[in-house]
Amino acid sequence: MGNSVRRHPLAATGLAAAAALALLPLAVSPYALIVVSHVLILAIACLGVNLLLGYAGLLSLGHAAYFGLGAYAGAFLRVFGYLGSFEAYLLSGLAASTAAAALVGLLCLRATRIYFTILTLAFGQVVHSLFVAGHVFRLAGDVGQGLYFVGEGGLYLPRLTMAGIEVSSERFPGVLYSVIAAAFLGCALLMWRIVHSPFGKALQAVRDNETRARFVGIPVGWCRWMAFVIAGAYAGLAGGLAGQLDRQVTPEQLHWVFSAKLVLATVLGGIGYFWGPAVGAVALVTLQETALRTTDYWSFALGALLILVTALAPGGLAGLAAGLLRRPGAGERPWDRPGPPGKHG
Question: What predicted TM-score, i.e. pTM, was given to this entire model?
Fold first, then answer.
């Protein structure tokens, strides 16, 4: 066991992270626990974005649509179908976001490079406009239209039952944090298996040299589509968790600006580094919390930080940490970054 942990530092890091997340409620205030919950939700969504951007070499500016669908699908079922189960709420959102990503991926992946990015942005804005203009609400008739006018496109969510149990308001933040932490650890473990599977290696081969990948028999289109669907599913799960944490869903969660936030956190943490999304999520939320308390120009501070990281540490914060920890002359190690995105053909 000891030798295994020494040979695989990421395994030791994962165990340490799990222990820290389990003990965190004993050491922080309820507000801090909510902030950490937001960090973990953002990290889940960024794990998917990192698979698409860092491992497949594809930049999507429309993944807020799947984040928002993950929250809205269950919210609509709660309002119009009287759904009261947190598990059903999450599963419905996950199904809706995954199905939407599968369909949009088939259309967007016909294009490559900047055209792919523009198409994802266009589809994301189409989804956003359907909710902002109230077209989706009108499908539910007069009741839906009334709710649209009252909430301006947003929906309120009550505390849902968990495993059939109605959790009290005092215990709910802690219980929901435990669910979010478990979801993050499960998503991270699953993503670790994905990127180190033959599919993950094929995806990196497609990223680095599409022509060579085709010659050796790798199904390029299928690999990219699967990465897009997985990223959409991760975003949908994160959106569902965010909806219950915030107790509301709003059209802002569907806007391209939120897609840019996901990309920003991923780049800030380190594209292609496995723990980059988590590092970027921590850095982004910490900066927002700090800047909002000290200045009205937090977006300026965020932009300045991104410029500094891009200029001084192109590999992101995770890349900077990996460079500092790497012994001189040790060379690249198996758990380091799988290489910068190459030709994105």
Answer: 0.89
